């Protein structure tokens, strides 16, 4: 396997300053719409990077569940590794690896827990089995076998039979409030186009082109 020889050119297009919206949320919306139109699987998948109190980084794929001028929202177990990391160090990064269109979006910011009402509203829209799974799994805890997980799921299924599944108090969401958002478009000869929006305060964003 000659991994060092695996490469390809990026030829789908370019990105110019004149192409960009005035703020990163609108630009993100434009690119996300184009991704959806391209019928790419899991368009909301993103890599969430956190670091614990010692500085040890961790990464995992989570799903974006909402975004607006306040930031980017995802939901999770509030006793998971990612949640412990965020408690110790709320500075996080999101990466949207939209390789199909030869694009990436990188968000740098601070994670803030969403209000209970927002978590309740989203939890109520989840499929019932996903709601029960939230109760059954103590995310990131060690377990002796898969059977332990399946038995827990079965027990909670019976416990909530015939009733709505409430949101566990240990399950909620985070909003990543961005201070910088980078849009990356692949180009030939590795001369990629990179633009970063930097939060200047009061809703103003400064846009800079970065060297690839």
- Order of SSEs, N→C? HEEEEHEEHHHEEE
The portion of residues forming beta strands comes to: 25-35%
**Which regions are unreliable across 5 or more consecutive residues at pLDDT < 50?**
none
- Structural class, from secondary structure content? alpha+beta
Q: What do the pLDDT scores average to?
A: 96
| CATH fold category name of the largest domain | Pnp Oxidase, Chain A
What's the CATH architecture of the largest domain? Roll
Q: Helix count? A: 5
Q: Could you give a short account of the major beta sheet?
A: 9 strands, antiparallel
Shape: globular
From the N-terminal CA to the C-terminal CA, the straight-line distance is 28 Å
The total tally of domains equals 2
How many strands in all?
9
Q: In which range does the helix fraction lie?
A: 25-40%
CATH superfamily of the largest domain: Electron Transport, Fmn-binding Protein, Chain A
- Give Rg in angstroms: 20 Å
Q: What can you see in these coordinates?
A:
The chain is of the alpha+beta class and 212 residues long. It folds into two domains: 3-124 and 167-210, Electron Transport, Fmn-binding Protein, Chain A (Pnp Oxidase, Chain A, Roll); 127-166, no CATH class. Helices cover 25% and strands 35% of the residues. Strands 1, 2, 3, 4, 5, 6, 7, 8 and 9 form a nine-stranded antiparallel beta sheet that branches.
